[in-house]
Amino acid sequence: xxxxxxxxxxxxxxxxxxxxxxxxxxxxxxxxxxxxxxxxxxxxxxxxxxxxxxxxxxxxxxxxxxxxxxxxxxxxxxxxxxxxxxxxxxxxxxxxxxxxxxxxxxxxxxxxxxxxxxxxxxxxxxxxxxxxxxxxxxxxxxxxxxxxxxxxxxxxxxxxxxxxxxxxxxxxxxxxxxxxxxxxxxxxxxxxxxxxxxxx
Length: 200
Fold this sequence. Notes:
The chain is α/β, with parallel strands linked by helices. The protein has a domain at 3-97 and 106-130 and 182-194: 3-Layer(aba) Sandwich (Rossmann fold). 37% of the residues lie in helices and 22% in strands. The protein contains eight helices and ten strands. The chain has helices at 3-11, 22-33, 44-49, 51-57, 73-80, 107-114, 132-150, 156-160; strands spanning 15-19, 38-40, 62-64, 85-88, 92-94, 99-103, 118-124, 128-129, 175-179, 188-194. The strands form two sheets. Strands 1-10-7-4-2-3 form a six-stranded parallel beta sheet, sandwiched between helices. A four-stranded mixed beta sheet has the order 8-5-6-9, sandwiched between helices. The longest helix is centred in the last third of the chain and has 19 residues, at 132-150. It is globular and about 40 Å long. 41% of the residues are buried.
């Protein structure tokens, strides 16, 4: 993994972990979480690693809106941001150590910005980009169209794979945030860098 990226994250006061594989990243996340309650933001990465299932099996309290019916999604999102740990992935990670997130509903950003005191981001190597413009390009090319298709949203990007800056109710890109450092509410902010491609 790029040593400059690791140094830049550490200078920004993120706690950095390196993992060669997704399985190694999963073990790191489980070790950090321990027995604590955990909220999960929308994340193909977390889904791929089976973290929800493992945490549930070992008896943790876990809240994830992907695992409930439509009528309970709002309640589950609210519970997730009140947990002891919040876990998801980054949409993009710039080489200078800044994290870029785009959100449609806003629950992930709430969890990362003013939510639990411990945050864990698990980041596959394809999400590391040189700069802000590259971050937005990758998110609008790969992340948003892929998530729109996964959720069967009626958006131009779901149909064409190209962002059209749409204005419909299913729009994926309603808010963009750059996390430059852990916030005052955070006691721990972990970034797990994985040397394989994970998620969207």
